From TrEMBL:
A Pfam short name: TauE
Keywords from the UniProt entry: Cell membrane, Membrane, Transmembrane, Transmembrane helix
Lineage: Bacteria, Pseudomonadati, Pseudomonadota, Gammaproteobacteria, Chromatiales
Subcellular location: Cell membrane; Membrane
Residues spanning the membrane: 15-39, 51-76, 88-106, 118-138, 145-162, 182-213, 220-243, 255-274, 281-298, 304-323
UniProt cross-references to PANTHER family, sorted A to Z: MEMBRANE TRANSPORTER PROTEIN
GO CC terms of this entry: plasma membrane
Family indicated by similarity: Belongs to the 4-toluene sulfonate uptake permease (TSUP) (TC 2.A.102) family.
Protein's recorded name: Probable membrane transporter protein
UniProt main location, coarse: membrane
InterPro entries: TM_pro_TauE-like
The keyword Cell inner membrane belongs to this UniProt entry's keyword annotation: no
Membrane topology according to the record: Multi-pass membrane protein
Length: 354
């Protein structure tokens, strides 16, 4: 059974918190470009600022972080190393997704709190483990392919199931402890694998579980995915910085150009999508996800060969099969929940009659 969304927010919005964050960020950025003389560096990397103007809107309005645009732009368009795309995704989302998350929290938008808390704890454990023990051993080509496969699968899911996903209302009210454990496993596994390797993805995995398994409304699932990606991105940057790994060369220069754009662009996406609806944006982004997969296979066809390309297609098929299993499991759980609720209601009615 689904718990409906409240008609109006009960708590007063506190947008001054977001405005305070915004003022603090731009003060730091101005100090870097004006006080430390990085203005010419920021101007020289203006193409990334333009790309992230689109990426930041997608970050705030869809369950995909800004790195979803930043990664393919750096790796496919500019032909830079995939490890740079990963580190840039962490760095730029630490600003854009954090800004969007603060905006969401300040507006008191509904979130799947039990699942989110579990996912944050899981990411806190899984992301550092993935950064230290998994990501360093993944070849550049595999990083690129992992990104391509995961996002192509996600795009195809929405191209085929968007009407169903967009039709959900509220969220299936399972046991809070169960929701927390679900988030914990998602955070740990997705943080250690997808996020640690590509710099993005934990938001998409959590969102997929919410909409397919919990039948969550997009107004709940997407903001929840934004918050977990913001948390994981900041964590990723901190782990890499404190551990001495550092970020890949070129990340800071591109970040300097794009950061002031995403700081306002991602929250703007949150606001605009509330006015125009999420389906048009999701359709466009889903199409781009499939397009980057085709682009990746085309650009890497010599290194992959026919067998590698077939394996990549098989991986996408496997992800889609997993999504379908998750969807069916969600339907079963919803049916069980509804049956229990009806039985409980009947028992209560009989007791009252007795």
């Amino acid at each position: 059974m689904n718990t409906p969304l409240p008609a109006k927010p009960v708590l007063k919005q506190k947008l001054w918190i977001w405005l305070l964050w915004l003022a603090g960020f731009y003060a730091v950025w101005l100090f870097l470009v004006a006080g430390l003389g990085y203005w010419s560096t920021a101007v020289a990397h203006w193409p990334m600022a333009v790309a992230m103007a689109i990426g930041s809107y997608a970050a705030g309005s869809t369950p995909m972080g800004g790195g979803t645009v930043g990664f393919p732009v750096l790796v496919l368009l500019f032909e830079l190393p995939a490890s740079l795309g990963r580190d840039f995704s962490f760095a730029i989302q630490s600003v854009g997704m954090t800004s969007a998350a603060i905006f969401i929290l300040a507006r008191r938008q509904p979130l799947a709190w039990a699942t989110l808390k579990g996912a944050m704890l899981g990411a806190l454990l899984g992301t550092p483990l993935g950064i230290f023990f998994i990501a360093p051993f993944i070849p550049e080509l595999w990083i690129k392919l992992l990104f391509a496969v995961v996002w192509a699968s996600f795009g195809l899911l929405h191209l085929f199931r968007l009407n169903e996903i967009a039709g959900h209302s509220g969220i299936t009210d399972f046991d809070e402890h169960w929701d927390f454990k679900l988030g914990l496993w998602i955070g740990a596994l997705a943080g250690a694998t997808v996020a640690a390797v590509t710099g993005v993805g934990i938001d998409m995995v959590l969102y997929t579980a919410l909409v397919l398994l919990c039948r969550a409304d997009l107004k709940i699932a997407i903001p929840t995915s934004v918050v977990i990606m913001a948390f994981t991105s900041v964590l990723g940057v901190l782990v890499k910085t404190v551990s001495g790994q550092g970020l890949a060369p070129g990340v800071f220069e591109n970040w300097l150009a794009a950061a002031p754009v995403v700081a306002i662009g991602a929250p703007l996406g949150v606001f605009i999508v509330a006015k125009i609806g999420r389906k048009p944006t999701l359709l466009v982004v889903a199409t781009l996800c499939v397009g980057q997969f085709i682009w990746t296979l085309y650009s890497e066809q010599q290194r992959l060969g026919m067998i590698g390309m077939l394996l990549a297609l098989l991986a996408v098929t496997g992800c889609l099969a997993g999504f379908e299993l998750l969807r069916r499991w969600g339907a079963t759980l919803v049916g069980e929940k509804t049956a229990k609720a009806e039985a409980k209601a009947q028992a209560k009615a009989l007791a009252e009659q007795g």
